[in-house]
């Protein structure tokens, strides 16, 4: 565009202008009616020689300021200055027309984005005059910045999404993936974009009706079954995935946006749950246990298993409510069971276990063990509890019979052990009996005197009474050990029990030349046990120790009773006999295991069963100086 010379530096054109001048004036007025700023500048100094009236509205500076030397350069935004100057120098050398965008600083200090369209007029090949238009593009730039920020936020959200996101064109070519997709499918960054979605989701676009079918194969029903699809990784490994598809129409055509989530663990958990439920159903149907689910609010009971058949009822007749079940409980068990369920299940929402007796159809009682625990509904609240009920009647009966047999065998063993001590017992009784006879004869002689000495006779009679009581105590202890009464547990002093056995067997030990030593800890608390059974165990230990020291010139036996740090009490019988080898130690408590000719091999086996029934355990081992220690430990009184 050629600008008249009389318009230089903002002056208006001459009124006497000819036709071309009038056209130029008309064109200038047209430009001034727009927001476009027309300008002209010296190509050498880069200073404006003319600017249109819109310039003042653009930056707020008066026209005169625009025409000052250096105005353009000094009003370029500092962040754009180097770029703009470098670009203009190159453009002036190489182009006759160019355009670019940059920011100018307005009068108020604000920035205005302008689009500068430039034409270069050359003289002898050199840039002489440059002319152009400045167009305010601030709104567009702000819109573009807002769009970029929004795009950045969207991209950030996409990258931070927990699911893999894949955008594919209708032909199946992948246009975009997020980092989660690359990690999920095992691809290096950038390796998936440009590839085919068939690589990771075989056949899924066709199945969903979002792409053309393959090789004449018709598209499948687009209805989504909700079942996981098979996804494939870069290494060929496959996994079940939850996939969602979305159609997006763009200027470039259809884009399918797909989200993918690995549901391997969910599928495994569901399979495990199904398998567990199936095992539960089979176990409840075929197993011996009866399983009940009880509603905590209504008390209704759902049984799993053949509870009616197990209790002798017709199908569906066994109680299906807690209230009716209470009536089936043995009267002695009702209060205890109700309190346990109310306290543990209803109040504390915790597990509980108990034993009870339940009445069957024929009015007999079956023994049950019940283990119950609340079942949460997934939100932390328990609405039901599950009870596993096992009929242990046969086990209870068998256990009672076994205890009876054990007690009978223990009685036989006691009698057998005391039979071996007959000589020692006779010797023990002979001493008080001989003393009674001697004292009685002395009393007769004293009374036969003409003047009986009443004081001496009184002393002799006191001695007779004491010896008689001594003999009676020996006989009483033997009778207690030989009788076959049912076990009775009560608090006992272990030291006293061991002393009683020591006194019973003192003569037998003395006759064999065995020295007896004792170490009893003082002030031991009582333990709960059956006195006769504990005496029998100690007798068995002493008997075995005596046999271990037969034909030894020097033999000694030590009774030890003390308390461990954990409160358990220890009874040990130590001898100086042949000792215990590792082989003997492994089998010495087994039934019918004996190294003595004529022995039954039941003493230590019975002893172990008695101690274990008391909640304790047997102990045995060699002593460092030779010999052995055999004994037992019992828990604190409960």
Write the topology of this structure.
Blueprint: H1 19-32, E1 37-42, E2 48-51, H2 54-59, H3 63-66, H4 71-74, H5 78-94, E3 97-105, E4 111-123, E5 126-136, H6 138-160, E6 164-169, E7 174-177, H7 179-185, H8 204-207, E8 229-232, E9 238-250, E10 253-262, H9 264-286, E11 290-295, E12 301-304, H10 307-310, H11 322-328, H12 331-347, E13 352-359, E14 365-376, E15 382-391, H13 393-420, H14 422-448, H15 454-482, E16 489-492, H16 494-511, E17 514-520, E18 527-530, H17 531-548, E19 555-563, E20 569-575, H18 582-587, H19 603-613, E21 617-622, E22 628-634
Parallel strand pairs: 17-19
Antiparallel strand pairs: 1-2, 1-5, 3-4, 4-5, 6-7, 6-10, 8-9, 9-10, 11-12, 11-15, 13-14, 14-15, 16-18, 19-20, 20-22, 21-22
Helix pairs in contact: 13-19, 14-15, 14-16, 16-17, 17-19
Give structural attributes.
22 strands; five-stranded antiparallel β-sheet; Beta-Lactamase; single chain; 638 residues; disordered N terminus; alpha+beta
Shape: elongated
Strand order of the largest sheet: 2-1-5-4-3
Number of helical regions: 19
Strand content: 25-35%
The CA-CA distance between the termini, in Å, is 115 Å
What would your notes on this structure say?
The longest helix is centred in the C-terminal third of the chain and has 29 residues, at 454-482. Helix 13 (393-420) packs across helix 19 (603-613) and helix 14 runs antiparallel to helix 15. The chain starts with 18 loop residues before the first helix and ends with a strand. Helix content is 42%, strand content 26%. A hairpin with a 5-residue loop joins strand 13 and strand 14. Strands 2-1-5-4-3 form a five-stranded antiparallel β-sheet. A five-stranded antiparallel β-sheet has the order 7-6-10-9-8. It has 638 residues and is α+β, with helices and mostly antiparallel strands. It folds into four domains: 5-142, PAS domain (Beta-Lactamase, 2-Layer Sandwich); 161-262, Beta-Lactamase; 278-389, Beta-Lactamase (2-Layer Sandwich), CATH 3.30.450.20; 404-634, Histidine kinase-like ATPase, C-terminal domain (Heat Shock Protein 90, 2-Layer Sandwich), CATH 3.30.565.
């Amino acid at each position: 565009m050629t600008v008249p010379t009389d318009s230089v530096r903002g002056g208006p054109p001459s009124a006497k202008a000819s036709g071309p001048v009038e056209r130029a004036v008309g064109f200038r007025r047209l430009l001034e009616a727009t927001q476009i700023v027309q300008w002209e500048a010296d190509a050498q100094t880069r200073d404006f020689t003319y600017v249109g009236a819109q310039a003042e509205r653009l930056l707020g500076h008066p026209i005169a300021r625009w025409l000052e030397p250096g105005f353009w350069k000094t009003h370029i935004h500092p962040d754009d200055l180097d770029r703009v100057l470098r670009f203009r120098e190159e453009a002036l050398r190489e182009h006759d027309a160019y355009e670019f965008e940059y920011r100018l600083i307005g009068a108020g200090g604000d920035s205005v984005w302008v689009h500068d369209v430039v034409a270069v007029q050359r003289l002898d090949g050199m840039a002489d005059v440059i002319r152009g238009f400045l167009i305010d593009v601030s709104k567009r730039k702000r819109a573009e910045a807002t769009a970029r920020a929004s795009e950045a936020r969207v991209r950030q959200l996409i990258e931070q999404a927990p699911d893999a996101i894949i955008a594919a064109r209708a032909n199946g070519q992948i246009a975009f993936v997020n980092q989660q997709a690359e990690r999920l499918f095992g691809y290096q960054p950038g390796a998936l974009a440009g590839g085919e979605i068939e690589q990771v989701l075989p056949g899924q676009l066709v199945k969903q009706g979002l792409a053309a079918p393959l090789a004449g194969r018709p598209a499948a029903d687009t209805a989504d079954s909700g079942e996981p699809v098979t996804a494939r990784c870069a290494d060929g490994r496959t996994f079940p995935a939850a996939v969602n598809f979305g159609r997006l129409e763009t200027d470039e055509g259809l884009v399918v946006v797909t989200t993918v989530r690995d549901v391997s663990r969910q599928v495994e958990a569901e399979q495990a749950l199904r398998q567990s439920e199936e095992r539960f159903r089979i176990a409840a149907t075929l197993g011996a246990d009866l399983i009940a689910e009880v509603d905590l609010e209504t008390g209704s009971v759902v049984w799993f298993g053949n509870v009616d058949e197990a209790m002798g009822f017709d199908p569906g007749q066994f109680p299906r409510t807690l209230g009716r079940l209470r009536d089936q409980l043995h009267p002695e068990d009702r209060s205890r069971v109700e309190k346990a369920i109310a306290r543990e299940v209803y109040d504390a929402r915790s597990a509980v276990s108990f034993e009870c007796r339940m009445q069957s159809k024929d009015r007999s009682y079956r023994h049950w063990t019940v283990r119950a625990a609340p079942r949460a509904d997934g939100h932390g609240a328990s609405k039901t509890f599950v009870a596993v009920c096992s009929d242990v009647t046969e086990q209870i009966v068998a256990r009672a019979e076994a205890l009876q047999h054990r007690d009978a065998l223990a009685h036989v063993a006691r009698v057998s052990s005391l039979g071996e001590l007959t000589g020692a017992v006779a010797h023990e009784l002979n001493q008080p009996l001989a003393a009674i006879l001697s004292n009685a004869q002395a009393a007769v002689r004293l009374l036969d005197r003409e003047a009986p000495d009443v004081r001496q006779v009184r002393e002799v009679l006191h001695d007779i009474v004491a010896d008689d009581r001594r003999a009676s105590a020996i006989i009483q202890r033997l009778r207690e050990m030989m009788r076959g009464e049912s076990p009775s547990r009560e608090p006992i002093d272990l030291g006293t029990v061991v002393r009683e056995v020591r006194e019973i067997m003192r003569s037998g030990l003395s006759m064999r030349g065995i020295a007896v030593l004792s170490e009893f800890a003082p002030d031991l608390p009582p333990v709960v046990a059956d006195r006769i059974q504990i005496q029998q165990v100690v007798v068995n230990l002493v008997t075995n120790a005596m046999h271990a020291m037969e034909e030894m010139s020097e033999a000694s036996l030590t009774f030890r009773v003390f308390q461990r740090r954990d409160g358990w009490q220890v009874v040990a019988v130590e001898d100086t006999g042949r000792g215990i080898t590792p082989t003997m130690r492994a089998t010495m408590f087994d039934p019918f295991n004996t190294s003595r000719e004529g022995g039954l091999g039941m003493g230590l086996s019975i002893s172990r069963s008695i101690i274990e029934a008391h909640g304790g355990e047997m102990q045995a081992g060699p002593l460092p100086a030779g010999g052995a220690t055999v004994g037992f430990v019992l828990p604190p009184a409960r």
